[in-house]
C-alpha cells in the first residue's frame, strides 16, 4: 500500500501567528497548538485530507518558494473579496514577474507567496485550496514521483504542467509547473508523508528510493527525511503508534 500525503509543512518564524492567518483566510481551524507545531485543517465536509503544519525555524526566507498554494474563487467578485480579506489579515501584493495575469499574487505575513485565482471550472469542487503548486524543471518526471509517493493518480501531464488529484476526487490538486529557476536554500514549504499503520516504514523508504528519492541526514526530525528527484526535502513520518507521546 502507498504512503499518503499528510500535510504541507511551513517553516515559520511565528508558527501560531502565520497559522492564524491561514486559518482565517481559508475558513479552516487550528487543530494542534503546541510550541513545536501548529496545525490547521479543513472542516470534514470539505473532503480535504491535507493539513497545513507550521513549524518554528531560525532560517530566513531565501528567494521565491518552490511550493505555493493557489486559492479558488467562485466568481470575479468573490476573487476580489478573497484578495481584500487576505490584505486585511496581513497579506501584501508581490511581484514575482507574473506580468498581466487574471490571478492575484500575494504573500502571507511571513512572505510566503500564494495566488488567488480567477474562477476556473476545474477548481469548482476543490474547497478553499484549488491547488498546491510545485516549481519544477521536469513536470512529468516529478508528477510521476509524487504519484508514487502519494498514491494519487496522474490526471494530466505535459512539458509545462502536470497534475495529480486524489482518487476520491475531493480536495485540492497537486500541480507541477515548469520553471527554469534554480533552487536556492532550503524550501520553507514542503510535504510530509505518512506510512499507513499496517505498512513497514523501512519498506516505504526503499520504495521511495527506488522511485528516485534520496535520503537526507536530519537529526531530530519526526521520521525519515528524504529528497525528491529535484532535491525538494520531505519527511516520512513514523506511524502515530511509534511516538512516545501524543
- Stretches where pLDDT is under 50 for at least 5 consecutive residues are 241-246
Structural class: alpha+beta
Strand content: 25-35%
Distance between the termini: 25 Å
Number of helices: 4
Strand line-up in the sheet with most strands: 2-3-4-1-13-16-15-14
Helix content percent band: 10-25%
Question: How would you sum up the major sheet?
Answer: 8 strands, mixed
Mean pLDDT over all positions: 90
Strands, count: 16
Query: What's the shape?
Result: globular
- Cα-atom radius of gyration: 17 Å
SSE pattern, N- to C-terminal: EHEEEEHEEEEHEEEEHEEE
Question: Could you characterize the architecture of this molecule?
Answer:
About 40% of the residues are buried. The chain is α+β, with helices and mostly antiparallel strands and about 250 residues long. The protein is built from four helices and 16 strands. Mean pLDDT is about 90; it is low at about 240-245. It is about 20% helix and about 35% strand. Strand 10 and strand 11 (about 160-165) form a beta hairpin. The strands form two sheets. An eight-stranded mixed beta sheet has the order 2-3-4-1-13-16-15-14, with helices on one face. An eight-stranded mixed beta sheet has the order 6-7-8-5-9-12-11-10, with helices on one face.
Amino acid at each position: 500500500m502507498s504512503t499518503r500525503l499528510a500535510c504541507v509543512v511551513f517553516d515559520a518564524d511565528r508558527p501560531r501567528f502565520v497559522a492564524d492567518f491561514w486559518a482565517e483566510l481559508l475558513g479552516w481551524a487550528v487543530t494542534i497548538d503546541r510550541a513545536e507545531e501548529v496545525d490547521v485543517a479543513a472542516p470534514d465536509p470539505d473532503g480535504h485530507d491535507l493539513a497545513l503544519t507550521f513549524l518554528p525555524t531560525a532560517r530566513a526566507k531565501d528567494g521565491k518558494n518552490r511550493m505555493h498554494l493557489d486559492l479558488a474563487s467562485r466568481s470575479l467578485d468573490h476573487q476580489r473579496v478573497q484578495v481584500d480579506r487576505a490584505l486585511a489579515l496581513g497579506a501584501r501584493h508581490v511581484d514575482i514577474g507574473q506580468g498581466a495575469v487574471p490571478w492575484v499574487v500575494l504573500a502571507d505575513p511571513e512572505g510566503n507567496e500564494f495566488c488567488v485565482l480567477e474562477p476556473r471550472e476545474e477548481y469548482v469542487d476543490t474547497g478553499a485550496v484549488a491547488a498546491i503548486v510545485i516549481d519544477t524543471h521536469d513536470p512529468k518526471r516529478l508528477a510521476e514521483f509524487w504519484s508514487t509517493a502519494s498514491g494519487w493518480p496522474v490526471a494530466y501531464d505535459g512539458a509545462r504542467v502536470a497534475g495529480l488529484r486524489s482518487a476520491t476526487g475531493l480536495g485540492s490538486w497537486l500541480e507541477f509547473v515548469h520553471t527554469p529557476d534554480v533552487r536556492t536554500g532550503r524550501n520553507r514549504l514542503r510535504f510530509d508523508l505518512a506510512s499507513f499503520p499496517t505498512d513497514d516504514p523501512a519498506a516505504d523508504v526503499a520504495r521511495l528510493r527506488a522511485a528516485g528519492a534520496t535520503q537526507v541526514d536530519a537529526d531530530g526530525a519526526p521520521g525519515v527525511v528524504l529528497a525528491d528527484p529535484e532535491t525538494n526535502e520531505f519527511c516520512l513520518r513514523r506511524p502515530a503508534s511509534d511516538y512516545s507521546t501524543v
